[in-house]
């Protein structure tokens, strides 16, 4: 508590003076993200690509090379295996079999028969058809786009069009770089990951709205001050709140990453990245973009003594 009280309320950091550096860094991140998606692609989970997923617990430490050799002898197409959190936990991915559901069940039975007594427990068996996977890809992309547009419309209604454009571009930056993060790390990209991306967008816009609300108030209060100075002052006055919120959120996510197990590892790591990049974009990108859209203070009202008094407070 004493540490929080010692945080400066208005540190007077020249964020706007570094706006070109921030925007260049963001452009680089977006470029790298698009490059990673184009060259490496995403490691789509069974939700999107279709097929059979079997999670097993073996009677002892799993010999993946031996298991791969045995699975390849079944002639059921591409089969990938990976250790899943512990040496005796294995995730088996089987490509979708040609034919109806009976063909998929037959492939599962072949795998179970081959594994025999090596398996202590079948923890889950899932099947998703390729048509359903393709529909989920489309629906997921549309959900993300409509969520961003809905947020932008709300910001436009709540503030002005400049705020809406800046918020939409900052959120698009967060979404693209998070997708690029999953392309780089090759963590599984599934429906839970998509939910994480939408969560990141909601978290980021929350920070952005807090800063934008302060910007609007300060623009109304200091009508004759240079806009760039008002923007800088607004970021600094909300900085401690933004950082404290992000740090406490990250503490929970780090705990989830460490203790949540392999199933939640990719999801929690993606959220950690998203919160960090969302905090950065709210401070270093959204406000500079607001300045780039030529936001202005309201036209000064007739002299009533209020303007001069407010300016003296600076």
TrEMBL record:
The protein's superkingdom reads Bacteria
- TM ranges are 21-39, 140-157, 164-185, 191-212, 242-259, 271-291
Question: Which keywords, in A-to-Z order, does the entry hold?
Answer: Cell membrane, Membrane, Protein transport, Translocation, Transmembrane, Transmembrane helix, Transport
How does the record say this protein sits in the membrane?
A: Multi-pass membrane protein
- Compartments in which it is found: Cell membrane
InterPro entries linked: SecD/SecF_arch_bac, SecD/SecF_bac, SecD/SecF_CS, SecD_SecF_C, SecD_SecF_C_bact, SecF_bac
Query: Which Gene3D superfamilies does its entry note?
Result: Multidrug efflux transporter AcrB transmembrane domain
The chain positions of domain Protein export membrane protein SecD/SecF C-terminal read 119-292
Q: Which Pfam families match?
A: Sec_GG (PF07549), SecD_SecF_C (PF02355)
Primary localization: membrane
Quaternary structure?
A: Forms a complex with SecD. Part of the essential Sec protein translocation apparatus which comprises SecA, SecYEG and auxiliary proteins SecDF-YajC and YidC.
Q: Which family does it belong to?
A: Belongs to the SecD/SecF family. SecF subfamily.
The job of this chain, per UniProt, is described as:
Part of the Sec protein translocase complex. Interacts with the SecYEG preprotein conducting channel. SecDF uses the proton motive force (PMF) to complete protein translocation after the ATP-dependent function of SecA.
This one is known as Protein-export membrane protein SecF
User: Gene for this protein?
Assistant: secF
